[in-house]
Amino acid sequence: MTFKLILFIFCFYNCGIIDAQTCDILILTNGTEIESKVEEIRINEIAYRKCDNPLGPLYVIEKEKIFMIKYKNGTKEVISQVIETSKEDPVSQKNISNKKEHSFLDFSMSIGNSGFSGADNNNYGTYGYYSDSFISTSKSFGVSLRFGNKWMLNEISTFYQLGLQTNWIRLRAGLSKETKSYSQGNINYHQNRVLDITFLNLGIVNRFKIGSNYGIQVNINFGPNYFARDGGGYDSGFGLIINPEIKFEFKKLYLCYDYSTSLINIYRQNNFNNPFIINNKFQHVSNISIGVNF
User: Fold this and answer.
1) Which residues, 6+ apart, have CB-to-CB distance to 95 below 8 Å?
2) How far apart, in Å, are the Cα atoms of 49 and each of 66, 70, 106, 199, 272?
3) Which of 21, 38, 197, 273 has its CA 20 to 30 A from that of 255?
4) 101-293 maps to which CATH number?
5) Largest CA distance in the chain
């Protein structure tokens, strides 16, 4: 009798071990455990079948919902960190690296330079008014505010993610110092107020993840812009802009450096009696921004 009891306990114990070892266990971030057979680990998902039905349907669950996998051989693999929610500090607790769409707003300080050529028709000489060609160069300093949206596509790898963005509007206001060198040898200096507006600029986002809270973006944007300036005459015009940028991310915050170059058709009028003169203006601006994703 004693021998039969010992044999029964031994068989029951070993059968339990065998059953336990035939299953993988998915531990979800909410504490739920799923006995399963893991079939495939994908970039964003894990495919599995239920342990008690290994030939049954294939189930798929997002990685961000799984904390750990305990494999049947005893090894463990952490899939995602459990994030403790806090009402006191939601910004520091929330990781936005996997968010598909978000808006961004940034404030920047900028320095720039520009140049264009043209002609003034209001110069007066011995034989009356004459046209004098000139070359204008300017250096500027300003501040800007930008608002846009970003749409991240599926991850190409755990390190790299591709996306699209739109800069809905960027307003830049500042001061510039213009130097005009005329063909007759005269040089004039002017202090100007500058307004630069870019709108509906489209961009490509290349995001490189460095851990769960850090990342680097290397992006390029392009689209229309509007330029206006007064001081030594009034300039305004529309043009096209190309704007590469690099962003250093920390959770919701980022530090950005971007460089824009644009070609603008300028309509210049030195005074109300002088007809408009069309010039092609090149403008280059460097910006350093601090921004937030939301």
Assistant:
1) 83, 212, 213, 251
2) 15, 15, 47, 50, 80
3) 197
4) 2.40.160
5) 134
Contact indicator for 34, 28 with CB cutoff of 8 Å? yes
For residue 133, what is the enclosing H or E element?
strand 128-155
Q: What is the DSSP letter of 64?
A: G
**pLDDT attached to residue 232:** 56
CATH topology classification for 12-78 = SH3 type barrels. (2.30.30)
Mean pLDDT by 10 residues, the chain (294 residues): 52 46 85 90 90 89 90 87 44 48 85 70 49 74 92 81 93 86 75 89 92 89 89 76 93 90 73 55 85 86
Q: Determine the distance from the C-alpha atom of residue 63 to the mean position of all C-alpha atoms in its chain, rounded to a whole number.
A: 24
> What's the pLDDT score for residue 204?
94
- Indicate the residue type of 91: V
Cβ(161)–Cβ(153) below 8 Å = yes
Domain residue limits, the chain = 12-78, 101-293
Amino acid at 29: T
How far lies 166's CA from each of 30, 201, 205, in Å?
36, 6, 10
What lies within 8 Å, CB to CB, of 117 at 6+ separation is: 133, 134, 135, 136, 279, 280
Per-residue pLDDT, 85:
42
Q: Give the phi and the psi of residue 90 in degrees, each rounded to 5.
A: -65, -30
What are the counts of helices (DSSP H) followed by strands (DSSP E) for the chain?
Answer: 2, 14
CA separation for the pair 217, 236 (Å, rounded): 33
DSSP code at position 146: E
Residues 6+ apart with CB under 8 A from 216: 207, 208, 210, 246, 247, 248, 249
